Amino acid sequence: MSNVLSRKAEHKIATGVIGLSIMAMLCLLIYYWQDFVQYCFSVQITLHRYLVLYLLQQNSQQLSGGLMLIVGSFIYGLLHAIGPGHGKFVITTFLATHREKLQASRLITLSGSLMQGVVAVVFVVVLAIMFNLSTGDLSRSRYWIEKVNALLIAAFGVVLICRALGIKLRLFKRGRQAACGCGHHHYPAEHALSTGWRNAIWLTLTIGIRPCSGALMILVFSNAIGMFSWGVAAVMAMSLGTALSIIVLASLVHYAREWMIAANSRRVSQSAASAAQLALLVGGVVLIVFALVLFNTVIPVSANGDFITAGC
């Protein structure tokens, strides 16, 4: 009996320490948020300049330039995913409110990141190459795509709130509660809370429909100097780097969520329905607030092209 009590006490202490640590990290992040964003922006500009330099070296028949372009683009994707961004926020909120399988979470993250690269390539091919639009028109198109992306995130938040309130939507299937025949409602199993391919597609679109600004910059510049194929290779390397970083984040969120459920299994099983409802409701509200902030802070249209804003 004493061993059971000591284990419960250890679980409570560990949960309290982790909770306080997370609260402290959030407070520090909020306090230094502006400095953090500014630092990320300055680092991004520096990396943009290096990528342009490597493109120019490759254009001058320096083979090392092409290799450094691909490696540098991959590192850019890794570091770009560390900074603030919509993809990380959406996938973190989703995994915190849905007990999705780890493999499915990784596939969604990978597909969304790769889609960002594909959308950037299609964006430049259609608008810059096929229709020969000006850099100002490209900036305006990018501006409206980012606005639509914010609306998609808000719509996904509305879906979560509707599910929390019991409002059925045909597009999304609700997970079933697990039953053991004992008359009690336990926390839904992982397979029961899998959101299905419809939610996976929506989440992939929400992450991937907004092309990375660095990818657009490198594609527009590579097209201008006649090296578009190298620009495409660089963008896909960026997408793989971003995918790797966000997959690591998704895995951490998955294991943290499962640990919290295991550490509080008895309390969670007693209030599974209300806990799931609350998680969905909070997640939906957070996504809507984030979408509003994103909608109102989209980089303005630049008549000279976004690559000027990117510091190139």
From TrEMBL:
It comes from the Bacteria. GO terms for molecular function: monoatomic cation efflux transmembrane transporter activity; nickel cation transmembrane transporter activity. GO terms for biological process: cobalt ion transport; response to cobalt ion; response to nickel cation. The chain crosses the membrane at residues 12-33, 63-83, 104-130, 150-167, 200-221, 227-253, 274-295. Efflux system for nickel and cobalt. Belongs to the NiCoT transporter (TC 2.A.52) family. RcnA subfamily. This is Nickel/cobalt efflux system.
